[in-house]
Amino acid sequence: MMETFNISNRRYLGNKYKLLGWIRSVVDGNCEGVRSFFDVFSGTGSVASAFTDKRLVVCDMMYSNYLAALCWFSPEPVDRERLARLLDYYNAYDASNEDNYMSRNFSDTYFNTATCRKIGFIRDDVETRYANREINRRERASIITSLIYAMDRISHTCGHYDSFIRDGKYDGALELRMPQNDAPMNPDNRIYCADSNTIADREETDVAYLDPPYNSRQYCDTYHLLENVAQWRQPEVFGVARKMDRSTMKSRYCKSAEAAEALEELVMKLRSRYILLSYNNNGKKLQCRSNAKISDEEIIRIMSLRGEVRVFNMSHRGFDAGKSELNKDNQERLFLCSVNR
């Protein structure tokens, strides 16, 4: 029987999987008549996964996260027998002698040459099958998401792609697994790949959940390789870390001079009865780039423009690749605004 994976089986900065029970309890205990949920900065989609009993609106500006959202939350049907056959085919395929974009640019960095050749073959083949209408949009997203999770399991990194480990020892084989995405989804779910600020007023929902970047670390820098594989535009890459041009993917929320302005713009555009903002104070770090870009006072001022604000707290240490210095004051906070203006 084929191995499976679920939405939580991925290392990702700021992932809220361990906080889902708390987030859901805050919504259930303080928000009335919730039938729709907007995950405005979805990331891996873990928070949206706690609200699949609602109509979901899911958005992220990174294409790799958009494909994951299609895999997990799209109402489009998946032919699981066909998907299983393709995953088995890719796992068994020997691409050891076939050079492609991945092997030419990434061999013996994050993966060895054989693995890079296989990744490149899979991506080329998936695009061909999708163009020929052999697979639908969600099946394509499911295969690519399976590939991204498989890459993450064996990547020669400490959990992200700012650098790779240079010891020449590559462990594990690339193995695509079946996503656990067979539960029925609301037929009115909507999934966007966009700057959240640009589409904030496109959907009317009961709860809008905001989980923007907290500090200077741009996600497109940290996960550039997975984004490259997801987009598969085969751009030129440069530097030791083999990064592509990411100038159009930078988030305003990672910049001290723009973060508060961006949040206020977003909050004022949202069409929701409740706005729930998750914001980690990150404790006090030795590296200033890791410190939160928006103060509690500024968050409360901005959210109060729309209604009454309450704050919920929980001590939490998120994924930090084992290098960040966090103190005992590190907390996850939920700012809940009951919109009345």
Automatic annotation (TrEMBL):
InterPro entries: Ade_MeTrfase_dom_2, DNA_methylase_N6_adenine_CS, MeTrfase_D12, SAM-dependent_MTases_sf. Pfam families: MethyltransfD12. Its EC number is 2.1.1.72. It is an enzyme of class 2 (transferase). GO terms for biological process: DNA restriction-modification system; methylation. Coiled coil: none annotated. The keyword Secreted does not apply. It comes from the Bacteria. GO terms for molecular function: nucleic acid binding; site-specific DNA-methyltransferase (adenine-specific) activity. It catalyses: a 2'-deoxyadenosine in DNA + S-adenosyl-L-methionine = an N(6)-methyl-2'-deoxyadenosine in DNA + S-adenosyl-L-homocysteine + H(+). Keywords: Methyltransferase, S-adenosyl-L-methionine, Transferase. Belongs to the N(4)/N(6)-methyltransferase family. This is site-specific DNA-methyltransferase (adenine-specific). It comes from Marseilla massiliensis.
